[in-house]
């Protein structure tokens, strides 16, 4: 059996931050991180395609979804530059405000965080998979899957959500807390592809298209994004779709994505193009009608599924009405969402512990002396550094408040 003053469950971005902040605020307290994997920070290494998009210069409430007002918490903490300066991490930003380490390397961020943990004297216990948490005489007893236990006075739970289970996060701690009566929001994969009927995207696998994506439910426009959509055999992917995945939690299968496949052209310009292509290629087969406007698979798909005629017919048969429906299809190519993507394809979780379950100090109302931070809480950010910013900020708040609550208790 091990013993510590503050135990942090989960060695991800928020857990590491919480541990450092707690130790910094109250150096006399023993702080320990327990992590189920054989090392901490595994997910961090994969962030931003290995470059770690660690924050964003433009933070707005519109970038966060769920029951928390995430920005109100974030604004209570130092700016990303100040925060990373403390860890010796130089940052830079691209033209869209996305912040990265100057090194361009997620590994260097993790190394700097680990150096800070070591410098502060935080202990790491890896290979410790939390199975149960019970209240003990002077705090808590946390049991592992292999029969070990850690006694602590205070707990910080930073065990993430369900997204990317291969990186240690399978929702096990969320389920544990739910079993103890803690209320969760509706859990859905966020920052993830969205599923569509595989028949509707037949022939499009591997296609990438620059477009404007609009999300609708019951005829109401919910969100619009410009970007590149990637088609898989049963889903739409790409950052602009990732940013709409959270909507599935609220609107379920009434969610519909509409792609404007020619976002820089007016309807008139699209129709003019089709008419001139039809004249130019009157002797060609129908499947060549949109050659030169779209890649082969997308061009054939659009003509075939819109005009619904044998592709061996010639372009000479294209009528004014064909031009009209084809133009409409290109400007409003619609897909009903049939489901969320599997957890292994998701980058984040919407619907963790609901905001009304915690205080402003991120302490659980139901269980005093238990603090929470990171993705385990019911908020999710858009792609672009917003989720890591939440992890750092909520980690600071939980770590600081946890340490302050302990002051005076230690001899
Ligand atoms: C591929 C990928 C790329 C991403 N890229 C970005 C990006 O560039 N920018 C951005 O802002 N966000 C990005 N994200 C999202 C971001 O990484 C997460 O939101 C963030 O890491 C959450 O931090 P956390 O500390 O709350 O949880 P996590 O980082 O998920 O850490 C939780 C830790 O708890 C451990 N744990 C879980 N259960 C137990 C248990 N029972 N016992 C002990 N330990 C346990 C896990 O092993 C894990 O180490 C990305 C996510 C993925 C999957």
Structural description of this entry:
With 411 residues, this protein is an alpha+beta fold. The chain folds into two domains: 244 residues, FAD/NAD(P)-binding domain (3-Layer(bba) Sandwich); 148 residues, no CATH class. Helices cover 29% and strands 26% of the residues. A hairpin with a 2-residue loop joins β8 and β9. α1 packs parallel to α12. The chain is elongated, with a radius of gyration of 25 Å. The structure holds flavin-adenine dinucleotide (FAD).
Overall average pLDDT? 97
Q: What portion of residues is helical?
A: 25-40%
Please state the second-level CATH architecture of the largest domain.
3-Layer(bba) Sandwich
Class of the largest domain in CATH? Answer: Alpha Beta
Uncertain segments are: none
Outline type: elongated
Tell me the CATH topology of the largest domain.
FAD/NAD(P)-binding domain
- Main β sheet profile: 7 strands, mixed
**Number of self-contained structural domains:** 2
Count of DSSP-assigned helices: 12
Bound molecules: flavin-adenine dinucleotide
Residue share in β-strands: 25-35%
How far apart, in Å, are the first and last alpha carbons? 22 Å
Name given to the CATH homologous superfamily of the largest domain: FAD/NAD(P)-binding domain
Radius of gyration from CA coordinates: 25 Å
Number of separate strands: 20
- Class by helix and strand content? alpha+beta
């Amino acid at each position: 059996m091990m013993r510590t003053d503050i135990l942090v469950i989960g060695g991800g971005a928020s857990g590491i931050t919480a541990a450092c902040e707690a130790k910094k605020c109250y150096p006399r307290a023993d702080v320990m991180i327990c992590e189920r994997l054989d090392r901490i920070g595994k997910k961090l290494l994969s962030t931003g395609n290995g470059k770690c998009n660690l924050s964003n210069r433009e933070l707005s409430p519109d970038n966060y979804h769920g029951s928390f007002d995430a920005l109100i918490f974030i604004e209570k903490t130092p700016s990303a530059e100040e925060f990373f300066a403390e860890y010796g991490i130089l940052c830079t930003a691209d033209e869209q405000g996305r912040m990265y380490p100057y090194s361009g390397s997620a590994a260097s961020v993790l190394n700097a965080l680990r150096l800070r943990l070591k410098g502060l004297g935080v202990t790491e216990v890896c290979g410790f998979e939390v199975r149960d948490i019970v209240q003990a005489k002077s705090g808590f007893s946390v049991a592992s899957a292999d029969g070990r236990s850690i006694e602590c006075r205070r707990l910080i739970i930073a065990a993430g959500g369900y997204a990317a289970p291969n990186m240690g996060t399978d929702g096990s701690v969320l389920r544990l807390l739910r079993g103890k009566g803690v209320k969760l929001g509706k859990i859905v994969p966020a920052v993830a592809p969205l599923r569509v009927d595989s028949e509707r995207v037949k022939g499009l696998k591997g296609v990438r298209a620059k477009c404007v994506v609009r999300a609708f439910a019951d005829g109401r426009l919910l969100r619009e994004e410009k970007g590149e959509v990637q088609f898989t055999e049963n889903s739409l992917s790409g950052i602009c779709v990732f940013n709409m995945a959270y909507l599935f939690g609220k609107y379920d299968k009434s969610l519909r994505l509409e792609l404007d496949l020619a976002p820089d052209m007016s309807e008139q310009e699209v129709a003019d193009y089709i008419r001139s292509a039809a004249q130019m290629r009157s002797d060609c087969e129908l499947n060549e009608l949109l050659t030169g406007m779209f890649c082969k698979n997308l061009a054939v798909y659009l003509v075939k599924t819109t005009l619904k005629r044998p592709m061996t017919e010639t372009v000479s048969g294209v009528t004014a009405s064909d031009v009209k429906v084809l133009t409409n299809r290109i400007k409003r190519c619609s897909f009903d969402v049939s489901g969320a993507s599997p957890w292994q394809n998701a980058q984040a979780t919407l619907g963790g512990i609901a905001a009304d379950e915690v205080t402003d100090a991120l302490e659980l109302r139901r269980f005093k002396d238990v603090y929470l931070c990171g993705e385990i809480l019911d908020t999710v950010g858009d792609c672009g550094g917003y989720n890591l910013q939440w992890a750092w900020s909520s980690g600071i708040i939980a770590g600081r408040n946890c340490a302050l609550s302990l002051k005076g208790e230690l001899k």
